[in-house]
Amino acid sequence: MKLTDAERLARARRGEENTRPVTAEIRVNAQLCTATLRLLGKSGAVEDDRNAVPLPGEWSYECGPLRTAAGEIIAERGYRLDGGWAEIDDLTARTPIEPTGAYLALVERMYGPVPEVSALPDGVTARSVQRGRWQISKDDRTLWELTWQPRLDGDVWTLWGGPRATQIVSRSDSPAGALAPITASA
Fold it and tell me: Which pick of 111, 154, 159, 177 has the fewest CB atoms within 10 Å?
């Protein structure tokens, strides 16, 4: 049974919700004086290797900046602390976390409707080739690729040109901004 795009997105969204981190853990390696921040899912396991982050510098568990550094990384990932740190053992501490509004908005953009490509001048067309990727063509057969990447700190629109669309022509936080070199020359 072949899934529709909407069914695939709904399945992917459920997967994100089921693996979304709910706990942050700091684990210190006493022998190496290093620490790692891990974001744990509902099962208590690291659901994604990107959620294990070495904390910079040399650390001991007693070091005050350790939890501050961990909190900064948690915030950069789109979460906020939802309680205090609890010591699990001499080298491990955990705290509940919850997604911020910005993170939830990112999830909406990732699994919701694809944004519209802004109005193009006469003689320029956009054809969707996959989710978040369009082929832009001009009447003179000039081709570009436009890509959209939803990100926590602001979506990125990139216009690619050159042989096989491998060179960045422009980058912007909006499709109109990325397409400006085309619309200016049309």
Answer: 154
